């Protein structure tokens, strides 16, 4: 997909299907990561939530991008337990407000993702280095914005974003958790990769795979 190619409900739904597939495939892994520093249910919760998202989209396909992202956000808030539901729900709900009714391009997608992550920050009060999903999403968006600004095609920009997200995810292993249940462990949280950062990196990687087709 080139930088100026339209992004519509069809390709976004494909992105969400790919994300749901990867979450289902890695549900046990995500819960195992969570077992070390949390409630051991991140994978189970995310799998349940994304299954509900796909079912909702199949039942009544949204007419435009704002409606699609709103439905995704509301479904996640209502079906995912723990902190992940509100945080992922906020991500998609904020993205909904950033799109117009028509199709969008790479710039609009990047702005919407930025709005979504800003919503996550406002909701969770997370900062870089807190050992949260923000530590994967923030570098991914910086890489995406930088690549698009340099004239890269969306496919290339998203591949760079996915690589940055993976690096951010891996970096959480050496961090001391400062948010959520993991923060209760203090120094003992070091040595464990954050499950939220891991699922967030999967979200960006899924986008790179789907939006990068033909790019």
Largest β-sheet summary: none
Overall shape: globular
Mean pLDDT: 89
Instruction: Work out the helix count.
Output: 9
Q: Extract low-pLDDT stretches.
A: none
Quote the distance from N terminus to C terminus. Answer: 4 Å
Counted beta strands: 0
Structural class: mainly alpha
Tell me the β content. under 5%
Keywords, separated by commas or semicolons:
single chain; 215 residues; mainly alpha; globular
Summarize the structure.
The protein is mainly α. The protein is 68% helix and 0% strand. The model has no long low-confidence stretch (mean pLDDT 89).
Account of the protein in words:
The chain is built from nine helices and no strands. The longest helix has 19 residues, at 106-124. The mean pLDDT is 89. With 215 residues, the protein is mainly α. The chain is globular and about 50 Å long. The protein has helices at 9-25, 27-37, 42-59, 65-79, 84-98, 106-124, 134-149, 154-171, 195-211.
Topology:
Elements: H1 9-25, H2 27-37, H3 42-59, H4 65-79, H5 84-98, H6 106-124, H7 134-149, H8 154-171, H9 195-211
